[in-house]
Amino acid sequence: MANLSTKEIIESILFAVPDAYTADELSIKINRKREDVDKALQEIKLDYANRNGVVAIEEVNGRFAMILRRDIAPQLKRFIREAELTPYELKILAIISKHSGIMKSQMAKAMGSGVYDHIRSLVDKGFVQESKMGRATSLRTTGKVPDIEKAIAAQAAAQQIKMQPITDFSKPEEKPPENPEPPQ
Question: Minimum mean pLDDT among 48-62, 89-103, 154-168: which range?
Fold first, then answer.
């Protein structure tokens, strides 16, 4: 990161990491002076405000995060619901992914009869395929989710896009270095 400007480093962090950071935390993490970090944060915030794009930099209680603009999120709601998975569905999907061809009755024995509704939901969402084998039904993941990591990533993305109102980015405070050394 030594070749990137403070502004580029901070913008990259805000884009790539879903957490919100204070200027002090960023100063520590990237080993840059607090004044440089403050200046970069204000420039980034202004850049995004002037772009009139769908992404914004939000500051709440001194913490900064990159978010979708609040007026955009409601328009995405119908798309997010289609791909959203509950934690229980993710667990079921992980089991089916690991044990491709597992019988639906085995799932019910292991997880209880409530699993049937969740399997139906996963089938409806296109994540699981059912195959009749006589009176039994086997389960496999579909091409929509070739592995469980993609399902987990989709869930994380859905949570990011949901945009629940942000009221507090609280995190334990770290003290910035007294005199951070500039990068070489």
Answer: 154-168
Asked whether 13 and 66 are in contact (CB, 8 A), the reply is no
- Convert the pLDDT of each residue in 72-113 to its tens digit: 766 665 555 455 677 778 778 878 877 778 899 988 887 888
Domain-terminating residue out of 38, 70, 102: 70
Q: Which domain holds residue 129?
A: 77-158
Give the residue carrying structure tokens 């007026």.
Answer: 71
DSSP 43-111: HHHHHHHHHTSSEEEEEETTEEEEEE-TTTHHHHHHHHHHH---HHHHHHHHHHHHTTTEEHHHHHHHH
For residue 112, being part of any structural domain is answered with yes
pTM of the model: 0.46
